[in-house]
Amino acid sequence: MARSKLPEETVVRLLKCQRWGVCDEGTADICAVELKTLHRFQRVAAQRAETHHRQVVQEVDVQGVQLDEAHSKLRPKQVEWVHTALAMGSWFLLWVDFGPRTQEQAAMLIAQVVARARELPLFLTDGWKAYPAALLQVIGVIYRPRRRGQVGRKPKPRLVAPKDLGYAQVVKVRNKAGHVVEVSRRVVFGGPRRFVKQLRLRELGETIQTAFMERWYGTLRGLVAALRRRTRCLSWSRPRHRGRVWLLVSLYNFVMPHKSLRQGRTQRTPAMAIGLTDHVWSYQEYLWLPVHAAPALTQQMDERIAHLLIPALQEQPRGRKQAKSPPVEISEVQEEEETTRSKAA
Q1: CA–CA separation, 108 vs 94, rounded Å?
Q2: Closest listed residue to residue 253, CA positions, set 216, 291, 302
Q3: What is the 3-state secondary structure (H, E, C) of the chain?
Q4: Is the Cα dihedral 42, 47, 48, 53 positive or negative?
Q5: CA distance 119 to 59
Q6: What is the Cα–Cα distance from 281 to 26, expressed in whole angstroms?
Q7: How many angstroms separate the CA atoms of 167 and 132, rounded?
Q8: For residue 59, which of 121, 120, 118, 111 has the smallest C-alpha distance?
């Protein structure tokens, strides 16, 4: 509502249309506004939603996290991967990131989760090979093996998983048509018995699965027109594409009650389940919530994430030139001695 001449009813209608996945042209027609006005609303709302998420989601109690990435298309013939971290049990979206499907992007997602969680949670992902290496990069510890005997080179130190880390994968095998024909589960870090025991103690179920993440992506594709499988509402702008997702993430956490979180007749949102609020936010309350940027807190969190992204076993850079020594002042007597020595030579 800042610096906006639109009435509150129109802004609420715009927000509801974006929440239910109406395309841009349809939203502008329903709300009787111009397309430029809608794009400005998306830009302001998305920036505000991301700023609010960065400030609020800190030191949260997370027992288990599911990580996954989804494929999305942009015009003209562009691909944008959506990386998401979802808290098990509360359905709270801890972080959403955009970028290529690389190990660096996976490490960034894990660093965001570790920096915002109070304790180290359990991790569950699919069978992508980049996740184990990214976990070791962010939270790995240095192991220095002993040399056997007194002859030979000393073994090099390497990164290993800490004792309290639990990580499991759900590997799906598909046929040529893309249908799932086999599902296997494996525990990468932590041991099978200890991992299942931790699942029971943290009340996260008894089986290794990623159903929470698959259900979230179904909701995301249903509520964002540009992410649907067969649609003509693809995004032309990458910032607006990311803004739609961030706006839906904020509404999903604080405004939209989840059926599986209901306690009796009391409706609950993921933010209520994780302990960030005590009631379901209305659209008016969400619109009028004051959100101000805090550069000091943002810089502190960025420094913490940057520190996590540096592996504990950092190799020393090679090929560095030695620093030149500063020039030394020479007196007149020393200059005369040097000249005489040079003449004698």
Answers
A1: 13
A2: 216
A3: CCCCCCCHHHHHHHHHHHHCCCCHHHHHHHHCCCHHHHHHHHHHHHHHHHHHHHHHCCCECCCEEEEEEEEEEECCCEEEEEEEEEECCCCCEEEEEEECCCHHHHHHHHHHHHHHECCCCEEEEECCCHHHHHHHHHHCEEECCCCCCCCCCCCCCEEECCCCCCEEEEEEEECCCCCEEEEEEEEEECCHHHHHHHHHHCCCCCCCCCHHHHHHHHHHHHHCHHHCCCCCCCECCHHHHHHHHHHHHHHHHHCCCEEEEEECCEEECHHHHHCCCCCCCCHHHHHCCCCCCCHHHHHHHHHHHHHHHCCCCCCCCCCCCCCCCCCCCCCHHHHHHHHHHHHHC
A4: positive
A5: 8
A6: 26
A7: 8
A8: 118
Lookup: tokens for 108: 């960034």
With beta carbons less than 8 A apart as the criterion, state whether 172 and 166 touch: no
Residues belonging to the chain: 345
Joined tokens for residue 109: 């997602």
Contact call for residues 262 and 254 (beta carbons, < 8 A): no
Tokens 């940027």 map to which residue?
A: 293
Q: For 91, phi and psi rounded to 5 degrees?
A: 60, 25
- The first and second tokens of residue 245, run together, are 């997702």
Contact yes or no for 107/137 (Cβ under 8 A): yes
In this structure, what token pair is assigned to residue 222? 């249903």
CA distance 159 to 162: 9
Provide the token pair at 161.
């998983």
Task: Copy the structure tokens of residue 104.
Answer: 């660096």
How would you write the pLDDT of the chain (345 residues) with one tens digit per residue?
677 788 999 999 999 999 998 888 999 999 999 999 999 999 999 999 999 999 999 999 999 999 999 988 888 888 889 999 999 989 999 999 999 999 999 999 999 999 999 999 999 999 899 999 999 999 999 998 888 877 778 888 889 999 999 999 999 888 888 888 888 999 999 889 999 999 999 999 888 999 999 999 999 988 888 888 778 778 888 888 899 999 999 999 999 999 999 988 899 999 999 999 999 999 999 999 888 888 888 899 999 999 999 988 774 444 444 344 334 343 444 444 545 545 554
